[in-house]
Amino acid sequence: MATNTERAAAIRWIQAQMADYGLTLEALQAAGCFEPPPPPPPPAAPPVCYRNAEGLTWDGQGEMPSWLKRAVNAGQSVEFFRVG
């Protein structure tokens, strides 16, 4: 965090730049300088680690899905469904 002295110096610099370029607060507002930033992008979906022939997927987190449990209980290896 900037100290009060640093903040005051920054304000003076900005005022000097505005005076040098003939800028007004209204001109800066019209140019969109004070628009709120865009919202952050939604978090990326977790990568798919396992997929079956029907396209059902699992990221390997949390409880194993029923389609994979059934395959493992039938004797199939979990690694058979690993992607990549």
Task: Describe the fold and architecture.
With 84 residues, the chain is mostly helical. The protein folds into two domains: 1-35, no CATH class; 50-81, no CATH class. Helix content is 38%, strand content 5%. The chain is built from three helices and two strands. It has helices at residues 4-21, 25-30, 66-73, and strands spanning 50-51, 57-58. It has a two-stranded antiparallel ribbon with strand order 1-2. Strand 1 (50-51) and strand 2 form a beta hairpin. The radius of gyration is 28 Å and the shape is rod-shaped. The chain starts with a helix and ends in an 11-residue tail after the last helix. The mean pLDDT is 94.
Put the structure in a nutshell:
With about 80 residues, this protein is mostly helical.
Class from helix and strand fractions? mainly alpha
General shape = rod-shaped
Stretches with pLDDT under 50, minimum 5 residues: none
The major pleated sheet works out as: 2 strands, antiparallel
Could you tell me the number of beta strands? Answer: 2
Strand arrangement, major sheet: 1-2
In terms of DSSP E residues, the strand content is: under 5%
How many structural domains can be distinguished in the coordinates? 2
Series of secondary-structure elements, N-terminal to C-terminal: HHEEH
* Quaternary class: single chain
Distance between the termini: 46 Å
Radius of gyration: 28 Å
Organism: Cupriavidus neocaledonicus
Protein name: DNA-binding protein H-NS-like C-terminal domain-containing protein
GO molecular function: DNA binding
InterPro entries: H-NS_C_dom, H-NS_C_dom_sf
